[in-house]
Amino acid sequence: MTHTTVDSPVGPLTLVATDGVLSGLYMTDQRYRPDDESFGPADAAPFADVIVQLEEYFAGTRTSFDLELDLLGTPFQRTVWRALCSIPYGETVSYGELAALVGRPTAARAVGMANGRNPVGIIVPCHRVVGSTGDLTGYGGGIDRKRQLLEFETATLASSAGR
């Protein structure tokens, strides 16, 4: 494993690669963030594409990511994480809607737990999942960051519609 840290509008992001493939993107004080010692030595080389795509995302010119990912989790977690990638930029779904999307309509709580364990936030857009009433709930990076990411995407869409 190797890692690097990059600056972003939501604070420093620690990128982690396993065998040269992105396996983690962690924010400062993120819930379920592994110990920094587990990230391996610092080496920015494996992250060139990731860094470019994150810069494009935060510049408002990228609405989805095209990166190889090495996500370690249970089969259910990986199913939820794949479904997260189908939520359109600037839109939200509820935990219940996401549960239905993965074929487990009564498993909103389990979907929420899998969502919280997403090791590659922003790129796998777990910030686009909200409570059943639209309230911002349960984001491993913190509710303020979730709000910031959603407001950023909404504003970017609004500004591109006006062009």
Folded structure, characterized:
With 163 residues, the protein is α+β, with helices and mostly antiparallel strands. The chain is built from five helices and five strands. The protein has helices at residues 48-59, 75-84, 95-101, 108-116, 143-161; strands spanning 2-6, 13-18, 21-27, 93-94, 129-130. The strands form two sheets. Strands 1-2-3 form a three-stranded antiparallel beta sheet, with no helix packed on it. Strands 4-5 form a two-stranded parallel ribbon. Strand 2 (13-18) and strand 3 (21-27) form a beta hairpin. The mean pLDDT is 94.
Number of strands: 5
Q: Give average pLDDT, whole number.
A: 94
Query: What does the radius of gyration come to?
Result: 15 Å
What's the N-to-C terminus distance? Answer: 43 Å
